[in-house]
Write a structure and sequence with these properties.
The chain is mainly alpha-helical and 329 residues long. It has one domain. It has a two-stranded antiparallel sheet. A hairpin with a 2-residue loop joins strand 1 and strand 2. Helix 1 crosses helix 7 and helix 4 crosses helix 7. The longest helix has 48 residues.
Length: 329
């Protein structure tokens, strides 16, 4: 853990979760994810030119260079920051590590994004709701009704329970803020080039596969946590939550995203997936859950409650382990 004991890392993780809870994810120019995005975009421009014809092998090779160079660069920078701040003073290193780790988490940002869609839907301002849902999905929001916008928002929140919280914490437990930031770099790569389309099918394959690998265990832990929360919550259905994961998760094109989406769908008695329009073209995606209830704005709030439940569950778990280690020390 690079001079940090496990107990110290647990305390840093607790601080990072609380920082995100209170401050959230401000879009500062110094935000690490913004700089990652700029680096990826710059290097992508050097490696890939859409007007040229590349062989499949060349695209895979160029995508590999993009992925490996980004991961290595972020890892070197993070380790260097850790070594430098620790050499100055351990407490400075603790503070910087907590802040950097908090930037890999985006629970408050997810909640705020969900509320930006929910609140106009409740007030009947459909134009504003369509505008805000367009910020979080790439679908043609102008054709969406309340059900479509609710579904898009709930799917985004459910999927990102893994990407924006559980995975960063999982990798921080293994390798601290440096490894959590490396995970965030991989996730950013996937969000920028990891698409199954004509442009990125091969160039982004390495990024997409690495993101799948890094999310594999956290996604399944998330499913278990959501099932536990659903069993304990009086307004959620734990049995349907579990059944939905078993029945529908494997139908999702992603090996990981189907788990939290199916879990939330089952817990809320709703159906996710279905028809979406992208750039004027309709696409059918696997349907997850049972449509026992029509999709309404309230389900956005309920999905946010699940997201917060996962955060509280993990925070309590980390605090409990830290307290046990403190008592036994």
């Amino acid at each position: 853990m690079m001079w940090y004991s496990l107990q110290e890392w647990l305390l840093i993780i607790i601080a990072a979760i609380l920082i995100d809870w209170v401050i959230g994810d401000p879009k500062w120019p110094t935000h690490p994810v913004i700089w990652m995005g700029r680096w990826i975009k710059w290097l992508q421009g050097k490696l890939y030119h859409s007007e040229r014809n590349y062989s499949t092998r060349s695209l895979l090779y160029r995508g590999l260079i993009l992925t490996v160079s980004t991961v290595v660069l972020v890892g070197i920078i993070m380790v260097s920051i850790h070594l430098l701040t620790y050499a100055i003073h351990p407490w400075l290193s603790y503070i910087v590590s907590a802040w950097l780790l908090s930037t890999t988490i985006a629970v408050k940002g997810l909640k705020d994004a969900g509320n930006l869609v929910h609140d106009p839907l409740i007030s009947g301002d459909m134009d504003s709701a369509r505008r805000y849902v367009g910020y979080i999905v790439s679908r043609d929001s102008e054709v969406m009704d309340e059900s479509d916008m609710t579904r898009a928002t709930v799917e985004t929140i459910a999927e990102n329970i893994v990407d924006a919280f559980v995975s960063p914490i999982f990798w921080a437990l293994i390798g601290g803020a440096p490894l959590a930031m490396v995970y965030r770099a991989c996730n950013t790569l996937d969000s920028m080039v990891g698409y199954r389309n004509e442009k990125f099918e091969y160039f982004g394959k390495c990024s997409a596969r690495l993101d799948d690998i890094l999310n594999y265990i956290p996604a399944r832990l998330t499913g278990l946590i959501i099932v536990t929360i659903a069993w304990l919550h009086p307004k959620l259905d734990g049995r349907k939550c579990y059944q939905s994961i078993i029945t529908f998760a494997k139908k999702h094109p992603s090996p990981n995203s189907g788990i939290p989406e199916s879990a939330v769908a089952g817990a809320l008695h709703i159906e996710l997936g279905g028809r979406n329009r992208y750039f004027g073209q309709w696409h059918e995606r696997a349907r997850l859950g049972w449509p026992s209830q029509p999709l309404q704005a309230i389900h956005i709030k309920m999905s946010i409650n699940v997201l917060y439940g996962v955060r509280i569950w993990i925070l309590i778990g980390v605090i409990a382990v830290w307290l046990m280690m403190s008592v036994n020390k």
